[in-house]
Amino acid sequence: MPGFEASTWYGLGAPRNTPAEIVERLNREVNAGLADPHTKARLADAGGTMLPRSPADFGKLIADETEKWAKVIRAANIKPK
Question: Residue 51, SS3?
């Protein structure tokens, strides 16, 4: 479909009712790991780019990607078997 770009991304999720302080700590620690120069270099060597995000930003990414690909599925009339 014209105007769409496909890429691969990875993220870390937690169960829906995980306490906010746990989510915040996980986010802080994961982002600290992603800021490590050795980690950045290893990912760059593999062709990747790190995009540290807040939990809210990651939730928005998931929602935006879901909406984007739902449009493609509808436009292509893709149906489950």
Answer: coil
